[in-house]
Here is the input.
Amino acid sequence: MQNEIETIQYATESFILSRKAQGCTERTISLYKVNIANFKKFLDNKEIKKTSEISSTVIREFLAEMQERNLSDSYIHQYARTIKTLMRFCIDDEIIEKYPKFQMPKIVRKAKKVLDIENVKDVVKACISIRDKAIIYLCVDTGLRLAEVVSLNWGHIHWEDGLISVLKGKGRKYRVVPVSPTVLRLLKKYGTTVDMTNAADPIFQTFDGGRLTAWGLDSMFDRLSQRSGVDFSAHALRRTYAKMSVKAGLGVIQIKQNMGHSNIQTTELYIQDLDDDDVIKNHKTHSVVDNFFR
Here is the structure.
């Protein structure tokens, strides 16, 4: 009889439990579950039941099969990351003795979607409610992630200081983000249309008073894309914040802090495609020598 600890089922259940214990978000947990379930189907078809039977060759065959289905580079890379994390967990938890080495699939870097001022104006014009308008303004003004936006409560806004507390950032990290008076006024106006009696009431609510979900916000962005003719996503708005902030003269360190990045390299990826004219103009305006040594 097969030892339960040797089974792939045991390994995957233990892995998911470990991610929950680490405080991973529900969205991340859900992604792990979907990726592992599809990988497990592949293993079942090959009649692989033991974790120790997951070899480098088996993983390469799975990734090669995904390549043959013409799936996107980033999609395949996401699966490879999940498998890599799972197998490292199995080593650390002494479920297997040898790590199955494999090369991560390459990602062809493509130009990321970023909105300009006119694009943002077109999206705002397409908003049919003050809630939708407030969300667009907030995303462009702060660079908050989709999950962070829907997690906001009215008690997270510090009206007098012009700040918003972000309690459910990536990795559950807490940070405080500045928000402009224009956005605060719009949020206050929107607040008159919903229940904001308690500090724990969600800022962005559905039409029946419930909390707007990440999926609901995604759907809202899809509808706005169709109405405005501007193809965008939550992440495109986040990149737009980064690019516009650099053009406005905000330092990369401050942008990193506002966006909740754990390292400066990630922030640099968001702003690496600035035009030379933007860089030159920004330097003329904010040059240390020109401003302090004349």
Remarks:
- Strands lie at 157-158, 163-166, 175-178.
- The domain at 117-288 is CATH 1.10.443.10 (hpI Integrase; Chain A).
- The chain has two domains: 4-92, 117-288.
